[in-house]
Design goal:
Number of helices: 16
Largest sheet: 5 strands, mixed
Radius of gyration: 34 Å
Shape: elongated
Structural class: alpha/beta
Helix content: 40-55%
Strand order of the largest sheet: 4-3-5-6-7
Strand content: 15-25%
Length: 577
Amino acid sequence: MEREVQIIAPRPKPKFLFNGSKILPTQKRVAAYCRVSSDRDEQLNSFDNQVDEWKKRLEQDPSVVLVGIYADEGISGTSEEGRLEFQRLINDARAGKIDKIVTKSISRFARNIQTSINIARELKAIGVEIYFDNEHISTLDPSSEVMFTINAIVAQEEARHISENVKWTFNKNKKEGIPMVSSNLLGYRRDPENPKNLIIIPEEAQIVREIFELYTKEVGTNEIGRILEKKGYLTRRGKTKWYNSSIEGVITNEKYCGDLILQKSVTVDFLSHKRIKNDGIEEKVYIRNNHEPIVSREVWDKAQLIYAKNRDRFRGENKDSRKYASKYPLSGMLVCLNCGNTYKRRHWTQGYAEPRIMFQCNNFINGYEFNKCHSQAISEDILLKATAEVINRVYLEKGKALSTLMKNIESQINDESTEDQVNELKRKQETIEDEIDEIIKKKQFADELERILLEKQYKERIVEYRDLENKINGLLSKSKEVELAKHRLLNMGKSLNGEKLTGQTLTKPIVQTCIESIIVIDKHNIVFVLPNNEKANYELIKERRESLVQHTPVLEGNVTYPRRFRPERLHYKVVLM
């Protein structure tokens, strides 16, 4: 029997459009993708031209059926995120609704190599073609992948250069003080006639003033939130609920005192566009008296001092004790000389005729037997009496201690020297700015070898520029800290209203403002550490506790507290941080 071979021609599946109508087997369903990366007029004109051109070309070709124009306006091509039309296009192609995608160029399609290659290969595997008009490349052409990859690399490199140039231009122009104002900024809107200016919204500004007024009167953020809700005030988003974070955001926003900080966050990757908090990564610009304030600088400074104290004071190694640290005047203030841990407030009932409140080292309470601290507990009532006496002697009697504090601070203020140094560094910055501008211009017209050399010069200049910026910020920050310390001391007596304190009238905010820490040597000896012009926190006090107790005291004294059988005595010394 003779073997027969029969050829079975492929029978293409019927193709349907989105509306369900059937097309000819010889026709292709084609979609066009257009994108521009900004919403400027010239870019939008280019966008309209892209859309019109594809409509005309595809509608004139009888072998294709235009199934749609997918278009993203003002969106970067370095990431799929945010490109809703791009995502819709790819999903429709995956669903078998599109046979061919046409786009102007590889850079219009995507500037991310990984995105370009992965999507091209995925769609090719299911028979969907992508055609790039400028490069004349089809992903179904076996010989095109090498050229496609090379062009994708070039597109990504172009995106990187654009990102660097835009970043540099932004960093240079931000010094003009154009604020980036969120639409959710309570109390302000950007002036439509002058982008550098902010306009106050009176009814919202009143809420801001109330928040600052309450906070500077030592009202906590929880209570402020309840007061605002009770009054029926709405947040900028129109919500009735006021969260702690929202109130803290108002308290710490420098715009309310008329200042402006630019570049609080930075983009760390030009492909993902991810932004993070700018903690020393890039330069910032601080513009003082940029616009009309809602609150006075005196109120602002007072609020920042309170906030800094509440935020920065670390409560020791026992994290659970922090939730109690704001309830009582001395909670979180006592540090053990022996082990460096903080003290916890406890109620003692055994061994005494009546219950007594004591402070005991956390490392005695929670420590393991092999490393348990055996320092002695100390009574709260005698501590409060000693603390009130120290604050009265230092800040109300204006004696040796306050005089020494002022001399220490004033000895570090040298405005003329600081100003000269800052001006000299800024002149160097201006020279480097000119050099960077020149390098950017040359890079646009350079060949590959020249571009490599210019790229190296560019990076070197950027490093030099940032080093200068860090030095300037350091000088200005130090000067500001010293001024704030001086301002705090001069106004401390005023905040106490000239009235002497007692152990019963002490409050947590007063203690935190006047005292940096209390180092407990034993149950009869303590050392008060006063805030100087150096920022301090628990870790710093812990590290320096042994040297601090050896400092020459600016004053010292004794207090006694009556007990049932014999009075309790406590000796204190006062030293500067």
